[in-house]
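pinning this so it doesn't scroll away 📌
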Amino acid sequence: MDKLVNTLASVEIFKDLGTDELAKIAKCCRRDSYPKGREFISYQDSSRDVYFIESGRVGITIFSQSGKEIGFRQLAAVDMLGDIAAIDGDARSASAVSLSDVALIRISASDFRELLVLMPSVNLRLLQRLTRLIRALSERVYEFSTLGVRNRIHAELLRLAKAHLTSASVANIHPAPTHAAIASQISTHREAVSREFSHLASEGLLEKRGRNLIVHDVPRLEQMVREVES
């Protein structure tokens, strides 16, 4: 139970709660684990549970009717998923696939909604999270409407870099995303990503080092993105 409480304490929406409140939430939770490559939430299915990632990585995707995989984002430890269906009671808006062996904490939709009623700080943090998702979606819509493929690659790389900064100007993205994963997220093909990454590497801005992707000059990358957007 102590380990479960400690994990919940690191989840964004629970960060204002005390140990006693976290212990009450823990009593409502169950643990699940899946091997790499398992789809544990399916697009349009009727499940409603909310998940918190204890360890491992999860990909959020939709498959088109033609079978093309469209990736939205990748989640890691203490990230949350499944909350949208729990809130509105509608079908799942995307699929969730384990990108590695994963350990998950699961809470039912009814218990999750009760938390939102009884714990205002959880409700507020969830609203803030949803607001960020809306802003991110608006940004992507703008990029798809205005930017070419090269510029969308730069914008996606900048998003990843900002989430993995090691200093004001350097980012160490770990594990390095595959070219196919980036291509899926910006609606292009793997070869286009490979070509642009090679170009950025030749310019000294990008370096692949084992399972790490090093961005050596994040401000320069940001300037490249902003110049096109302006």
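📌 and the second one:
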Amino acid sequence: MTESLDIAALLEAVGRSEHGAMDELVRVIYPDLRRIAHFHLVKERPGHTLNTTAIVHEAYLRLAGGNANWNDREHFLRAASAVMRHLLVDYARQREAAKRGSGLRPLTLTDAGPATDDDSVAVIALDDALRELSRIDQRLEQVMECRYFAGLSTRETAEALGMSERTVEREVLRAKGYLKRALQSGGG
């Protein structure tokens, strides 16, 4: 409970642009940020040039330079996870631009196992599908962001988004169906 109050106070201080507040906030929730970054990296190809620490630090720089109006811990962690996902997508786009798409296969929701060297296109395709999903139903994109990119449980997702656990489960099924169709058709 004390930690929640501390984080709430830090978020308010960050919102007021108080000197050192963002640094202190990140220090307090650094283990959560590392967990989220690790969760993202597990889905990437082995030997990825970015590591957990680099992703956390880059996310910190992007968060510190952007909108600092977060409602609570979960809102901040969702924002951090989105920044990390976009960071990895940007990295994949740069990598793919260098390779010019040499026969890479698209990602499907049924793909399993560790990522390979050829997953840049898959990361980009998934990001494009998520962007389209957000245009269709932003809540579906938020649910997927929480569950699969931030690594939140169904309960944590429900709390973060202010909905019931059953609603989260239904929205995950809806989002998966949309994403599967979008990825199989080769685009959003």
